[in-house]
Amino acid sequence: AARLIESMDPDDRAATLDELPIEVSGALLRRFSPQNRRVTQAILGYDAESVGRLMTPDYVRVRPDWTVAHALDHIRRYGKDAETINWIYVIDQERTLLDDIPIRHFLLADPDTTVRDLMDNEFLSLRADEDREEAVRMMSRYDRTALPVVDKLGLLVGIVTHDDVADVAEEEFTEDV
User: Fold this and answer.
1) What gap in Å lies between CA 40 and CA 25, rounded to an integer?
2) Do 49 and 131 meet the contact criterion of CB atoms below 8 Å apart?
3) What DSSP string describes 72-87?
4) Which alpha helices (H) appear in 31-110, and where do they start and end?
5) β partners of residue 127
6) Is 139 helix (H, G, I), strand (E, B) or coil?
7) Cα–Cα distance measured from residue 163 to residue 15, given in angstroms and rounded to the nearest whole number
């Protein structure tokens, strides 16, 4: 059971453990690899109704001083492990979110252009401690497939994808009905 749950995406893994009795989820969590245990515990550390519980830490991030060629190599290498690569997140050395750029801009840019030259420094983000209904509103309002999630300091901690937000919207609608 631990191997099966550990093979899930981090947000789904946390949601599954959240549904189990505490003694069962604790026993399963102890069988996870140290990396998966740390990621899962971080997600479970957020309030059950918060954006933090919906997010996944599997996203692609680049640095502003990289060239587009370097960024694309990085995306090729790490994108297969990401939840989505529709949006690429630009962070600084401290992991502060600086921008989010559609992958299309990378694909169409000159390889020698720097990521900084693609940036417009205007981005949407959610706070991990916000109510998850805010993710539904923002995703709907701005027609996005993914939104970055930051902590109180503006550090990028994950992303929320449209499929997770759709599940929340369905739950909220069912609750309202």
Assistant:
1) 11
2) yes
3) HHHHHHHGGGSS--SE
4) 34-44, 68-78, 103-108
5) 150
6) helix
7) 14
Chain-centroid distance of CA 80 in Å reads 14
Using alpha carbons, list the distances in angstroms from residue 28 to 1, 5, 58, 150, 168.
Answer: 8, 8, 21, 28, 25
What is the pLDDT tens value at each position of the chain, 177 positions in all? 889 999 998 888 988 998 899 899 999 999 999 999 999 998 988 998 899 998 999 999 999 999 999 999 999 999 998 889 999 999 999 999 999 999 999 999 999 999 999 999 999 999 999 998 899 899 989 989 999 999 999 999 999 998 888 877 777 777 777
Closest CA to 132 of 84, 86, 169, 103: 169
Residue with tokens 């503006």: 154
Q: Which of 117, 121, 127, 115 is nearest to 155 (CA)?
A: 127
